[in-house]
């Protein structure tokens, strides 16, 4: 996840609204819930186009170079291309981990191989020579890394808050006999307020774990 100080410019809600059409379009193209894509975008960069992590992940969706190449993403700072690549990646992660959003999030943060290692208890040998999960722990797939656990918890809380908000909004609309759709509602919604999104602790260590 990218870190940094607050910069002048559009507010969080304004950035969210600007990106809403791209998120909806890419989510539809790859058959995933747009709330998932928006939650990842928020957690990764707070919707900042110029976000760069200490480990070199770039753009709205914080793509590392290897993953960007795998998904044909030439410019991680291009919002349309980055969101589309992330939707493709998340679809693949959800398929790989049987639709489990928590494991897809963990893999987005720490790598698919790391999640597989903690699902199966089989150590993962990296090209650098480092061994992931040398003690053969089986954790259900969630790596026992505080930063990854916090990342997953943030994403789950965002998605849960949005789901509850959407249900409440739909109920209110039904009562007033008005229509509500993804195309018309404020996607920054529930959002992306600090009430729903606990801040990740800032520290000098990168929150990305480099996995080939």
Report the order of strands and helices: HHHHHHEEH
Main beta sheet strand tally, sense and closure: 2 strands, antiparallel
Counting DSSP H or I runs of 4 or more residues, the number of helices is 7
> What value does the average pLDDT take?
78
Order of strands across the main sheet: 1-2
- Radius of gyration equals 17 Å
Contiguous uncertain segments of 5+ residues: 164-212
Principal-axis shape equals globular
Secondary-structure content class: mainly alpha
Strand content: under 5%
Distance between the ends: 18 Å
**Percent of residues in helices:** 40-55%
What is the multimeric organization of the chains shown? Answer: single chain
Question: What is the β-strand count?
Answer: 2
Q: Any overview of this molecule?
A:
49% of the residues lie in helices and 2% in strands. It is mainly alpha-helical. It has helices spanning 12-30, 34-45, 65-70, 79-96, 101-110, 112-120, 146-175; strands at 124-125, 131-132. It is globular. It contains 7 helices and 2 strands. Strands 1-2 form a two-stranded antiparallel sheet.
What is the compact description of this entry?
49% of the residues lie in helices and 2% in strands. The protein is mostly helical.
Highlighted features:
212 residues, mainly alpha, 7 helices, 2 strands, disordered C terminus
Q: Helix and strand layout, with pairings?
A:
Blueprint: H1 12-30, H2 34-45, H3 65-70, H4 79-96, H5 101-110, H6 112-120, E1 124-125, E2 131-132, H7 146-175
Antiparallel strand pairs: 1-2
